[in-house]
Amino acid sequence: MSEVAERVPMRTVLGLAVPALGVLAAEPLYVLVDTAVIGHLGAVPLAGLALGGTLFTLVSSQLTFLSYGTTARTARLHGAGRRKDAVAEGVQATWLGIAVGVLLLVLAQLFAVPIAELLAGEGPIADAAARWLRVALLGAPLVLITMAGNGWMRGVQDTRRPLWFVLAGNGTSALLCPLFVYPLGWGLEGSAVANLIGQSISAALFLRALVVERAGLRPDPATMRAQLGMGRDLVLRTLAFQACFLSATSVAARTGADSAAAHQVVWQLWSFLALVLDSLAIAAQSLVGAALGGGAAQRAKGLARQISWYGLAFGVLLGAVFAALATVLPKVFTSDAAVLAQLPSAWWFFVLQQPVAGVVFALDGVFLGAGDARYLRTATMLSAAVGYLPLIWLSLAFGWGLAGIWTGLSLFMLLRLITLLLRARSGKWAVVGAEVGAAA
């Protein structure tokens, strides 16, 4: 079959990517609403929300294998024409999410206070964070049900319904949050209760989607163990990311308040664009997994090339947009002259990284769809150990400031690009079959 015949129409890719972007963006947008509501209660509740929210995000981000790993396994079965088995993967991922979520719920009730005090010291901020976290983590099983639901539905190339499910939950939370916090007088805990209700709505919709598929709902420990095997590699990969990003924030803070503020502005923009580019990666996961599940290795390789070019073009476009906004956009975030003076030290690294990031995130999606989690784990940890972490801490030792930190991030992204391109060229990741197997 010719290469032209192997191409997937752009509208097919966008039909998967755009709703996925909505799901990815829904949670950060809700956090902004939550922050705006709590911010009017005063500094202590806002600081408590910041600390509690960071801990919640730290825990949930380690469990994204419930979505990404489930997509990889489900997409292959879907590509092989085995929809019932694909949905069964979603059932087992949901059971796994419930089990892990209940464990987190119990641990939160036992250790919320000592963990908050460890990070913030004894006092009102730690108390506020612990109170919020104890309520918020009652929803841990619900959050993980939603992750698993997103995973299996992406795998069967349905990204539209998850968008509506997530918007229904987060929209309800956004409406209830100010009501619970102010007229009802529940304060910071009111925010957590609103979040809990929203999570219940989303989780219920994902559970209903499983039930109407008429799949068997009994737990299957063997399948859950297989899902945990892929999850282990994805958790280690996520830990490498977090070690780098937390180190960068720590070093920026030690460099000075102006540097820390400038780093925060540019880092939040970088994180937002990562979500934008990750929507393309989700489309790649679904399409590549289905191609390999259907026995079409050449089609999967063609998709890898095609989506990598899309990622490059998207990254170049984003880089050009933010280069043009270099003198305007930073002033939206801060009017402090000292912070604005520090921003260019990070801004141009951020702009120039976008084409690289476009290809990196696209290939991440390709290899996640192929179930090549072991290679992604090793490549990410190696890139972090060789590129990012040494430069971050050398920046602190030698006073290189933001330029040193963002040079480290740039080197990290370049090393990831090289390792991913080498893997793509080898073709060893394109292992066909309905079951996810280890690529050579």
UniProtKB/TrEMBL annotation:
PANTHER family for the chain: PROTEIN DETOXIFICATION 44, CHLOROPLASTIC, PROTEIN DETOXIFICATION 44, CHLOROPLASTIC-RELATED
GO cellular component terms, A-Z: plasma membrane
InterPro entries: DinF-like, MATE_fam, MdtK-like
Protein family according to the UniProt entry: Belongs to the multi antimicrobial extrusion (MATE) (TC 2.A.66.1) family.
Domain of life: Bacteria
Keyword Acyltransferase: no
Location(s), subcellular: Cell membrane
A GO MF term: xenobiotic transmembrane transporter activity
Protein name: Putative MATE family efflux protein
Residue intervals passing through the bilayer: 49-69, 90-112, 132-152, 164-186, 192-213, 234-257, 269-295, 307-326, 346-368
Protein keywords: Cell membrane, Membrane, Transmembrane, Transmembrane helix, Transport
Chief localization: membrane
NCBIfam families per UniProt: matE
A Pfam family matched in the record: MatE
Entry membrane topology: Multi-pass membrane protein
Keyword Cytoplasm: no
